[in-house]
Amino acid sequence: MTSSSDVRTPSRPGTGLTLRGATLGRPGAPALEGVDLDVAPGEILTVVGPSGCGKSTLLRTLAGLLPTQAGSVEQDGRRINGPAADRALVFQEDALLPWRTLRANVELPLAVKGVPRGERRAQAEAWLDRVGLAERARHLPHRVSGGQRQRAQLARALAAAPRVVLMDEPFGALDAQTRAGMQDLLVEVLHGTGATVVFVTHDVDEALYLGDRVALLGTGRLLSVRGVPRPRDRTAHDDPARRVLRRDVLTSLGS
Amino acid sequence: MSRYALRVASLAAALGLWQLLTGLKVDLWLRFSQFPTVVEVARAFAGRLSGGDYWTDLTDSVTRILAGFLLAAVLGVATGVLVARSRLAEDLLGPLLEVVRPIPAVALVPVAILLFPSNEQGIVFITCTAAFFPVLVSTRHAVRALTPVWEEAVRTMGGGRWRILGSVVLPGALPGIFGGLSVGIGVSWICVISAEMISGQYGVGYRTWQAYTVVDYPGVFVGMVTIGVLGWVTSTAVELLGRRLTRWLPRTTSYSAADRVPRVRATAPAPVESSSEAMQEVPDDQLV
Questions:
Q1: How many CB atoms sit inside 10 A of residue A250's CB?
Q2: What is the C-alpha separation between B240 and B237, in angstroms, rounded?
Q3: CB A85 to CB B154 under 8 A?
Q4: How far is CA B140 from each of CA B133, B144, B150, B182, B185, rounded to the nearest angstrom?
Q5: pLDDT of residue B264
Q6: Is the distance from CB of A108 to CB of B157 less than 8 angstroms?
């Protein structure tokens, strides 16, 4: 069903997310209405849309932080009633706890999960190493750069081996160069986790690079979901099919 | 080092001025002729220090204030968190707390006498009530001002109520709580001394009032100096503890950094000012 299986061999089966006729948002102020969306196990679904179209609302609903106003949201056929450890959320803003070192931040989900202290530490260090922060493990978040904070957030999100990773414009505040590096890093660290990923961005190129499929949000509704040819291939931007898709996406966002 | 010299010089200058005014018995509208001189006070102080009473008074007062203040810290933080986090608690406790809060703790002396079987407990009660409200109010504000994303992060890790309390609410509110504790320890001293003057047996406040009733003015000043020094020591202790526990705060100002760099450097990275921090960031970003 998805092309991701050749990129990442799942050590643990991913999980599917389903929205059926869902109205999302706060009571009396729906941000999105009538959303029908299937996120396949193990795929990377990117979500693009103009700012204020309800991208974050969609993600917070999938995380379980926001109840649906109508319709349903399900994980593998089971209704989502609240946040859970197997659906990790990476925030756009800096969501690291400022009084904890990077390592202690990465240890936190493991502590919540009940992993013993020594093992927690070893796992957190291994994750920080994977995102290239081994030497910064004992720094406080405000002592490292924005890009490093986002890498630490990524390590924190993945540390407890979640089955879904929800990412809310995680690289939105970074400069272009750091951003490209982060995208590559994301692809690399997701490799082998088998996690299903929903990645929200307002950057069309980012969405087309990362996503197996891309969901287009317009004001108040889901416009369409399109398959992306040759995802996570830096050379694919010249691909004719890709260029057609890019133009379509830009047109639909512009209208 | 020169900053310490400056501090000592400031105290010495105040003492010198006092000695000058009282020694010369200056009477220019303000009347220093009846005022004890620094030397007289020092002599009285030396006399008191050699007697056993002084130390009994001191330990009595310190025990009372520690008991009252610690009780107030625990109750104030607990109530503050409860009121800030629970609408039910806010509705149930809020009005009651707001009505009791404006009453000066010293005005509760009659209540304390009626309620408690011993004076000792009454004084602790008054001290505790005095420190309770600053701690409560600052805790409530600090908890309400927490960045919501911290709590959401822990919730999406599957953390429950207690995890959020222990990992987000308490550490995040700590800087604000310590603000309340600093104010609280100050009011505690005011109230413990006043309560001792009114109803105490032993204690620095009681002894100071005794000295006044027998027209022993140097004795009064011995009491006042003692209170001043004790107050300073305890509030410095609260301040230092607070700084230690909230070392993670980004706002390490340059002057506090200058104080701490020599000691801290071995264990933790030295505080960095924002300009050098920005410089530090650039090369790392490009390595990503």
A1: 12
A2: 5
A3: no
A4: 10, 6, 17, 16, 18
A5: 40
A6: yes
CATH topology of domain B37-246: MetI-like fold (1.10.3720)
Mean pLDDT in residue range B48-71: 88
> In this structure, what token pair is assigned to residue B253?
């100002």
Q: Nearest CA to CA, how far is B259 from chain A (Å)? A: 20
Residue type at position B9: A
Q: Which two tokens stand for residue A13?
A: 């089966």
Pairing of strands A87-90, A164-168: parallel
- What are the structural domain ranges in chain B? 1-35, 37-246
Pairwise CA distance, residues A27 & A6, whole Å: 42
Closest Cβ–Cβ partner in B149, B155, B286 for A177: B286
Domain locations along chain A: 4-95+163-252
- The answer for A 111-150 residues in CB contact with B (under 8 A) is 112-113, 132, 139-140, 142-148
Please say whether the dihedral angle defined by the alpha carbons of residues B2, B3, B8 and B9, taken in this order, is positive or negative.
Answer: positive
Please list every residue in chain A whose beta carbon sits closer than 8 Å to the beta carbon of residue B250: 98, 142
Helix axes B274-287, A176-190, angle to 10 degrees: 60
Q: What is the pLDDT of residue A86?
A: 86
Question: Is A83 in the B-facing interface, judged by CB distances under 8 Å?
Answer: yes
Per-residue pLDDT, averaged over A20-24, amounts to 84
Q: Report chain A's C-alpha Rg in angstroms.
A: 18
CA distance A254 to A251: 5
> What residues in B contact A56, CB-CB < 8 Å?
none
Cα-only R_g, chain B: 24
Specify the residue for token string 């957030």.
Answer: A153
CATH of A4-95+163-252, one of 3.40.50.300, 2.30.110.10, 3.10.50.40, 3.60.20.10: 3.40.50.300
DSSP letter for B107, please.
Answer: G
Query: Which of A187, A197, A199, A212 shows the shortest CA–CA distance to A164?
Result: A197
Contact B158 A112 (CB under 8 A): yes
| Chain B residues with beta carbon closer than 8 angstroms to that of A113 | 157-158
Helix B274-287 to helix A146-159 angle, to the nearest 10 degrees? 60
* Per-residue pLDDT reduced to its tens digit, A193-227: 888 899 998 888 888 888 888 888 887 787 778 87
